[in-house]
Amino acid sequence: MFTGLIQALGTMRSLGGNRWQINCHHSSDAILQDLATGDSVAVDGVCLTVTEVLPQGFVATASPETLRRTTLGQHPDRFVNLEAALRVGSKLGGHFVMGHVDGVGYLQSAEQTATSWEMAFTAPDAIARYIVPKGSIAVNGVSLTIADWHPAINLFKVAVIPLSYAETNLQYLRPGDGVNLEGDILGKYVEKLIQSGTHYQVADSVVDAVSPAFLAENGYF
């Protein structure tokens, strides 16, 4: 599990097969400190397992399925965002990010304002249903808040503060570039409960299934 707060930038290069070497750059202590074989590291929002620790990086495996569903490996030697797994007791400054990418989105525009960079992305249907205004989303592993959402064209906008923009690979994106997107895990569990159609036993009573009709009847809609 991760928070979406990027700790370092790195570059990836293929070692052949499904093995990839990730070299850490700039403020990499948070990644390399105490890093051990078997640890998890989010690479552009994709949870990878460390198979070998190197002096300035690590080796990880990425299956063909992972490469097919994400942007990893599409552009060798480009910068990737890195975040070590969340430690028990650590601060949770972003949101819960699992490192399981839902799909690839595409940058449409990036405009600098007086206080932030306003970036617009399109999202595939697989993740569009989890997007809500003011909700959370991970873009290349970066925890961001959705500022605006246009469901008719599956386009969302985020405002990226200068610090996050300068310390992540969002600064290198150009219109048309692909990004890894992960929806908020809380939305996925809510969707599962609503669609399950299950009745729940509570003490001596049977509680109706959590459904849109149930929520509307009880004043939630």
Structure summarized in a few sentences:
With 221 residues, this protein is α+β, with helices and mostly antiparallel strands. 17% of the residues lie in helices and 39% in strands.
The low-confidence runs, each spanning 5 or more residues with pLDDT under 50, are none
SS strand fraction: 35-45%
Percentage of residues assigned to helices? 10-25%
- Treating each run of at least 4 consecutive H or I residues as one helix, how many helices? 6
Sheet with most strands: strand arrangement: 1-2-5-4-3-6
User: How many whole angstroms does the radius of gyration measure?
Assistant: 19 Å
Mean pLDDT: 87
Largest sheet: 6 strands, antiparallel, barrel
Gap between N and C termini: 32 Å
General shape: globular
Secondary-structure element string: EEHEEEHEEEHEEEHEHEEH
Number of E strands:
14
Helix/strand/pairing class, anyone?
A: alpha+beta
3D structure, described in words:
By secondary structure, the chain is an alpha+beta fold. It contains 6 helices and 14 strands. It is globular and about 60 Å long.
What does the secondary structure layout of this molecule look like, with pairings?
Elements: E1 8-16, E2 19-25, H1 29-32, E3 40-43, E4 46-54, E5 57-61, H2 64-69, E6 79-84, E7 103-112, E8 117-122, H3 125-128, E9 136-139, E10 142-150, E11 155-160, H4 162-166, E12 178-183, H5 185-196, E13 200-202, E14 205-207, H6 212-217
Antiparallel strand pairs: 1-2, 1-6, 2-5, 3-4, 3-6, 4-5, 7-8, 7-12, 8-11, 9-10, 9-12, 10-11, 13-14
